[in-house]
Specification:
Aspartate Aminotransferase, domain 1, 2 domains, alpha+beta, Arc Repressor Mutant, subunit A
Length: 186
């Protein structure tokens, strides 16, 4: 009986991995209600087992709480346990200047207590990047979920930023780099 339970658990863990790896639509990951549909009511236990299994590969199953705060609205996705190295980031297919626009936008929105006007953000970014890159990048990051915009054109941090980016480390790196540049020469 125990071997049957173990075999069932292994099949469900394998199914959970397949569901998480296969991307449907534009956004990565799987909603909680989808996991429940594919794996059953005990899907959280299966996700914990899967997270332990993929930890040897340097990955983890990460949960991003939904806006409603319910389990069904949560999104589960695979992500690196540690931040990627520069060579790993280069192989992701994202240009370094696009990453710079995203990092600057996230830092600016965070510096404004999590809400910044779109025009104000664009003005800040145009001081550092070409106008066409700013508009293109902001629109792209809004579509991909890194940033969110409400009806009043206020930008906020999106679900994907909360899932994929360690905001504290990003802000620490930016602030420490800025302190190096501002420090007086001796």
């Amino acid at each position: 009986m125990e071997s049957e339970d173990r075999a069932l658990l292994e099949r469900k863990v394998r199914r959970a991995f397949q569901v998480l790896v296969l991307q449907r639509g534009r956004n990565p990951g799987v909603k909680g209600w989808e996991m429940k549909r594919h794996l059953g009511k005990d899907y959280r236990k299966i996700i914990e087992v899967l997270s332990e299994d993929v930890s040897s590969l340097g990955l983890e199953v990460h949960e991003v709480k939904g806006a409603e705060g319910t389990d069904d609205g949560s999104r589960f996705l695979l992500r690196f346990r540690e931040p990627p190295t520069l060579s790993e980031a280069e192989t992701s297919g994202i240009r370094i200047d696009d990453l710079a626009v995203l990092a600057a936008a996230i830092a600016f929105v965070n510096s404004k207590q999590g809400r910044a006007g779109r025009r104000e953000t664009e003005h800040f970014l145009r001081e550092k990047f070409p106008k066409w890159r700013v508009e293109y990048s902001l629109d792209r990051y809004l579509k991909r979920g890194y940033l969110e915009q409400d009806d009043m054109t206020l930008l906020r941090i999106g679900w994907r930023t909360r899932a994929e980016i360690d905001e504290k480390t990003l802000m620490t790196l930016i602030l420490s780099r800025g302190a190096d540049e501002v420090a007086p020469a001796q």
